[in-house]
Amino acid sequence: MTDRPDLAAMIIPLSRALIDAELPVLREHGLSMWAYAVLLALDERPLRTQAALAESIGADKTRIIGFLDDLQRRGLIERTPDPTDRRVRLLSLTAEGRRVRDSAQAGIQSKEERLLARLPDEDRRGFLRALQALAALPPEEIADPR
After folding, report:
1. What is the pTM of this model?
2. What share of the chain is helix, strand, coil (3-state, %, to 5)?
3. Where's the HTH marR-type domain (predicted)?
4. 3-state class of 144 per DSSP?
5. CATH number at residue 90
6. How many domains does the chain have?
7. Does the residue 78 lie in any domain?
8. How many CB atoms are closer than 10 A to CB 25?
9. What is the mean pLDDT of residues 34-57?
10. How far apart are CA 146 and CA 135, in angstroms?
11. What Rg, from alpha-carbon coordinates, does the chain have?
12. CB 83 within 8 A of CB 77
């Protein structure tokens, strides 16, 4: 028995509160949580298939099609046929998509800064380093960390 709660017991309520804080910012930008996840993921690799995108954000590939249609209709992303396989669509952010994503992210991170300001500087830096290191782990390593 340890003197701390389980990680999930601490992270889940925090995660829910962070999502609740993000929703008004996303609404201001006309984005759903899934649409925002798409815009963030496309920045990592400017071109990728819809299937790869869905896998990277943890969505079913058929479920994100509506979000992709909406983002494309609004001029935030482009979907172009892959020249090597016309059945595959390559995705990329438009300049407007990058602007909307950056503006939404700035609003979200501004709210996060107010929360992080409650921690002493050293704890804050350590928390962010640890969170980034854990978030970078592949899911299978988290499930079975041997």
Report:
1. 0.85
2. 65, 10, 25
3. 4-136
4. coil
5. 1.10.10.10
6. 1
7. yes
8. 19
9. 83
10. 17
11. 18
12. no
**Tokens at residue 61, please?**
């590939």
Output the six-digit token pair for 130: 């640890």
In a domain, 143, yes or no: no
Domain span holding position 21: 7-137
Q: Is the backbone of residue 80 left (phi > 0), alpha (psi -120 to 50) or beta?
A: beta
Q: Which are the contacts of 127, defined by CB distance < 8 A and separation ≥ 6?
A: 116, 119
Question: With contact defined as beta carbons under 8 Å apart, do 131 and 86 qualify?
Answer: no
Query: Helix 95-116 crosses helix 33-44 at what angle (to 10 degrees)?
Result: 110
Cβ atoms of 94 and 77 closer than 8 Å: yes
Report percent pLDDT > 90 for the chain.
65
Work out the average pLDDT over 104-112: 96
Residue listed under structure tokens 């983002």: 71
Q: Report yes or no on 2 lying in a domain.
A: no
